[in-house]
From TrEMBL:
One of its GO terms (molecular function) is DNA binding. The lineage of its organism: Bacteria, Pseudomonadati, Pseudomonadota, Alphaproteobacteria, Sphingomonadales. InterPro entries: ChsH2_C, NA-bd_OB-fold. This is DNA-binding protein. Residues 48-114 form the ChsH2 C-terminal OB-fold domain. Pfam families: OB_ChsH2_C. It comes from the Bacteria. Keywords: DNA-binding.
């Protein structure tokens, strides 16, 4: 696996046995899973790894530069896809969609979690996450 910039936030993303997983929290009382994970200091929750693959539940294309702040991307804005990915047996996660043309996206498309670089307003690069089509789905 390539060397990644530091992860953008604690308890977000981890690599286990060659696959990336998002970290979520499971409420000990209700069993409800939530993402992003709660801080480790919150003893009402246990950490759980989410499945690294799922299916595209819904998507859209962000075709205009979002309001800034909070958006801090480059001045030369380029449209990007955003979607909800249903992670089997877990929950639905909102994410950037990468490595796929807008016209190729389809509901129920198999997707996999991938690390994705994110440049902060300061110019510092951190690692976040995105979902890309499973190789066989292309």
């Amino acid at each position: 696996m390539p060397t990644l910039a530091p992860i953008i936030a604690a308890n977000l993303l981890v690599e286990v046995d060659g696959a990336y997983h998002l970290i979520a929290s499971r409420d000990r009382a209700s069993g409800r899973t939530i993402f992003p994970a709660r801080p480790d200091s919150d003893d009402r929750y246990d950490s759980v790894l989410l499945p690294p693959e799922g299916r595209l539940w819904s998507w859209t294309v962000q075709r205009f530069r979002p309001k800034s702040p909070p958006y801090a991307g480059p001045d030369a804005f380029e449209p990007y896809a955003v979607g909800y990915v249903q992670l089997d047996g877990a929950l639905i996660v909102e994410s950037r969609l990468v490595d796929v043309g807008f016209d190729d996206l389809r509901i129920d498309m198999p997707m996999r979690l991938v690390p994705h670089p994110f440049t902060l307003a300061s110019g510092v690069v951190r690692t976040s996450f995105a979902f890309a089509p499973v190789e066989e789905a292309r």
